[in-house]
């Protein structure tokens, strides 16, 4: 009687054990397969998007470099004018080619980046008016905030290694 009971519980244990092993190995198998395809898909987007980001960065930095000036002459205004046109085009590519429909916040920040670039160009177009300099500088900050917010949203830590000496990105 005792022996039979022990045998039964042994069999039961073995059953549980093998079920556990089976489901574990199957799980692992599934996860691996999924991960592989995902990583490959992302990699392609990553390098393309990273290239686009580099261009965005270049134009952003051009406006940022002169944002401490007390006066913009024709040369500085040209930088604002050119950079904002480039940014508008680059942002449109970002919106179209690298949309993330499943991430509402990402989409919103992507659109915001375009809007702030467009506003920067509007300021350029009224550069003769009083206050245009301050408005242009304000737009640089507004634009920067969209960068920082999106990178923060995604957990991308570009700062401060990318922008040495920069502490105030408007986002903690
Ligand atoms: C809507 C989201 C979003 C916004 C807005 C955004 N970025 Fe990015 N940024 C990304 C993502 C995503 C990556 C990672 C790209 C990758 O490596 O695949 C990235 C990466 C970068 C990189 C690193 C590129 C590299 O070589 O790896 C730089 C530089 C950069 N962004 C600059 C900027 C600047 C400057 C702005 C604002 C003018 C900005 N980004 C706005 C999403 C955004």
CATH architecture of the domain at 45-154: Up-down Bundle
The amount of beta strand, in percent, is under 5%
Radius of gyration, in Å, reads: 27 Å
Overall average residue pLDDT: 83
The total count of helices amounts to 4
> Major sheet, described briefly?
none
Give the CA-based shape: rod-shaped
Helix fraction by DSSP (H/I, runs of at least 4) = over 70%
Structural class: mainly alpha
CATH fold node name of the domain at 45-154: Four Helix Bundle (Hemerythrin (Met), subunit A)
Number of strands: 0
What is the secondary structure topology, with strand pairs?
Elements: H1 2-65, H2 74-97, H3 104-125, H4 132-154
Helix pairs in contact: 1-2, 2-3, 3-4
The structure holds heme C.
Structural commentary:
The structure is a single chain. The chain has 172 residues and is an all-alpha fold. It has a domain at 45-154: Up-down Bundle (Four Helix Bundle (Hemerythrin (Met), subunit A)). It is 77% helix and 0% strand. It has 4 helices and no strands. It has helices at 2-65, 74-97, 104-125, 132-154. Helix 1 packs antiparallel against helix 2, helix 2 packs antiparallel against helix 3 and helix 3 packs antiparallel against helix 4 (132-154). The longest helix has 64 residues, at 2-65. The N and C termini lie far apart (70 Å). The relative contact order is 0.08. Residues 28-37 have low confidence and may be disordered. The chain binds heme C. The site of heme C has 21 residues, from helix 1, helix 3 and helix 4. Heme C (HEC) binds next to helix 1, helix 3 and helix 4.
